[in-house]
Design brief:
heterodimer, A: 340 residues, mainly alpha, ABC transporter involved in vitamin B12 uptake, BtuC, globular, B: 284 residues
Amino acid sequence: MPGTPTEIATRHLAETSRWKPLEFAFWLVAFGAIWLLPSHHLILNEIIITALFAMSLDLILGYAGIASLGHAAFFGFGAYFAGIFAIRVIGDPLTGLILATLASGALGFITSFLVLRGVDLARLMVTLGVALVLGEIANKMTWLTGGADGLQGVMMGPVLGLFEFDLYGRTAYVYSLVVTFLLFLLARRIVVSPFGLSLRTIRDNPLRARAIGIPVNRRLIAVYTLAAAYAGAAGALLAQTTQFVSLDVIALHRSADVLLMLVIGGTGYLYGGFAGAIVFKVLQDVISNWTPQYWTFWIGLILVILVLIGRERMNHRVAVLWARLRGKPEPRPRTIVGGH
Amino acid sequence: MLTILFDGIAYGMVLFVLACGLSITLGLMNFVNLAHGVFAMVGGYVTAILMNRLGVPFLLTLPFAFLVPAALGLVMERTLYQRLYARNHLDQVLFTIGLVFMAIAAVDYVMGSQPQLIQLPSWLRGRVDVFGVQVGLYRSFIIAVCSVLVVALQLILTRTRFGSQLRAAVDDPRVARGLGINTALVFAVTFAFGSGLAGLGGALGAEILGLDPTFPLKFLIYFMIVVTVGGTSSLTGPFFASLLLGIADVAGKYYVPSLGAFVIYTVMIVVLVFRPQGLFVKAR
């Protein structure tokens, strides 16, 4: 296809941002589950919230290359904020959700300056440290958070003043699904925008990104804030739909689990969080039915094998297989892409 | 007051013995080994099993608490860890966290989830009064053993041929290899030694820190604080960092129990923000 470089680039960008049939199918199934799987709404609600949380981690890990061991800090903060807001101020879900999202974003903005300082290991430790400090605060401020007993007595009003939360989780699932879908649309728009492309440049080579005039630090602060807000929204959804918050929302294993989900699902294409959350929850369900006490052993084993085989390589193999099935040319592994 | 300082020093010494292997692997091969605590746990359990089931005296179990984790470390290094040296930190973190999960579940399965108690010999129990200060006998024993270890480590590192090879490999692995130093061998030996020390620390510290299957996860953060705050280029950095951490933790828990672990986490973040390379590192 001929054309000036600008035209080629524009066409390429339009092509990559177009919706694929599989994406339509995914959301059709997700919305169809409202009617098709009425007895599984509670677990579906949990899955979709976890998926939103994993997607928020994908924004910083998959697109900007910031590895975080403490992403649950924002999830937990959003959950506690929404829960406490519902108890002390007003039980309207949407108001609580929006405020919790904004507050988590603000927290993300503040802590992003800490995260930017270090590289690699120091960064991992700082994110972990932030989550630990917040967890410790939630543990000690018993008068506000309920401490180790958890936050009890969260009473939610109906969504939009119309839909009461029911015992079977139907309202909860629809509510979480719609919120997740809207946030997904926004995230999808953002990652294919020039802003999203500049993030990927930073991920692949921060030095070159700086050299071509991308304000690296400002972009990283922006995406970290955005991811924190998303994680906070996921936490708020969990607090509102389960009407309970415990220290578990901010614990280290939640940060580790979400990282694991994202790694199972693959990073850098937004759906990794969804795929990972589904696989993870189903696995958790199956394994803990089979061996309730020791299921972490098998999760650990999966993680070890996954890394030994190589995450990138495995994602690439799936992509190759997929391309072959559809008779298209094989995609190149991501590591070589830099040359163009 | 002095008793707290004394307890803090003993605590810090144990932390140092636990974490110094980690600081070497991190500094030498730039490998993030979150599973370091697993070796410490193995050491602790070796001592607990030998004492409680076979009736071996406490002191005699200590060599085994060193040797078993060291052998395990050597095997793991040769079979698994060495494949991951070239990977990025995220892969290493995921891999080693996976190992931690597996170890916790496996120990839970074999030994049960209850904490293991270690019955100290009678001559190590109790406290004595030294110049008006209450001094625990076991803590004095720990300080003595760990001081000997620290001095021995420092001598090995600075005075022996192996020590200079190790330091050369830390400073610049490529040049070291070019000079004919077998860095892979140096690293395997160091890794095994570090794992053994962790095991010894786990055995010595079982009385102070407690020992149950969640040990690797519970103390992971302490090891990482020691290593990140102390820096990874020498042993003195982590040593002072562990003493600081030990004293701060014991004093914090005694004077302001309501703050809990809040103090040390905050200190870690502040140090990392202002000195990302660690507190005691000379700028290169």
